Amino acid sequence: MDDLFGHGPDNDDDDGPVAAGSPGAGTGAKAPRSPLAVRMRPRTLDEVVGQQHLLGQGSPLRQLAAGADAAGPAGPSSLILWGPPGTGKTTLAHVIARGPGRKFVELSAITAGVKDVRRVMDDALTARDLYKTTTVLFLDEIHRFNKAQQDALLPGVENRWVVLVAATTENPSFSVVSPLLSRSLLLTLKPLTDADIEGLLVRAVADPRGLGGKVQLSDEALEHLVRLSGGDARRALTALEAAAGVAFGDADDVERSAGENGSAGEPVTAEPVTVDLRHTERALDVAAVRYDRAGDQHYDVASAFIKSIRGSDVDAALHYLARMLEAGEDPRFVARRIVISAAEDVGMADPSALQTAVAAAQAVQLIGMPEGRIILAEAVVHLATAPKSNAAYMGINKAIADVRAGLGVGIPAHLRDAHYPGSKQLGHGVGYKYAHDAPHAVATQQYPPDDLVGRDYYQPTGNGAERDIAQRLERLRRIVRGK
Fold it and tell me: Does pTM top 0.70 for this prediction?
């Protein structure tokens, strides 16, 4: 069974690094135990999973992948691929390099320096002039290059000695020098969807270059692998390979046990080994989170989360927050629930809670995950430990109930709009008292409709900041109502 994990067919394309992001035909393995992600590397753009917004007919990527002359003299000569890990940046570079008359060179900005860049440029110029060969230079982690190192790329890019394919997980507007950015086409890669990852894993199980149909994946195991991948194809394939290894280890144990019990001479069936949930949990050392983002568990956990905040149990609230995030819940959904809780459950007992919640929601959208978990946790701790009041929430509900019941007929004439000609003759604004002219800027005056005079909607609690609000509100009502 060991041949599943590295003894694929020989192929010239396994010298490059792991390239995930697709379920394609991939390549074989020269050396034993070549990673599954390497063996499943696509060889054409049609095999790439996801990024369909970049792969339409006539797109720059297709032109570059088709060959040296396909893009024409005005075609893009260099690309900057910006996207999260595991979305196919390295894959796309390798596919482009497969075009006719291409030579592929790879550098990592982590280890390469200016001398390495200049050597590549010199070799590329020689290859172009003597052998009519275009050099594709794949530069990973270009954001790690300083200004001088990036400037060394400019002559080769501008004169088209090389086709530069630079990959970065950082915003190029901040991490790539302007001259290089202006000479390259910026393509933004999107995270792979759950459907993309699921298709990738199913293909890898069946493909001869993958696991060759020698395993079958249970629905629960497939869901677990998809959820833990976080949209990263390389991570998904690595996890699948590890889980398959655990499953085959269990199968070997069963065979040895059968041999010890005297049945070793019986023929071994060729049935595929099943990879189920326990294998993925053991392989990844991560328990499957019982959580369905589209079903009851989604609402049950979210409900428990909000009720824990409302009940001031900060530890339980953090547990449910972790449970949602580990299950792959959209952090923006969590942030929205926190904002609602700040207004509904904390309210005016701590007015700063809503500010914290809104700031957290904005920050999560700005920086994303996994760092966003810290911001969400801070907001949860603030809300769970804050004094609680639903007085504002109950107040608006009472007011809405009266409006729906037909109460609140008309508007007092002195409060009506009096800015247009003839309004005075109608009595609009007559007798209105400008509050700022009164002591403490509070005037005795009727504000609600006649049938709602004396109706109290907002009843502040004695919790937190509302203690002071309650005392102030009592004085305000007494002055305004003339009591």
Answer: no
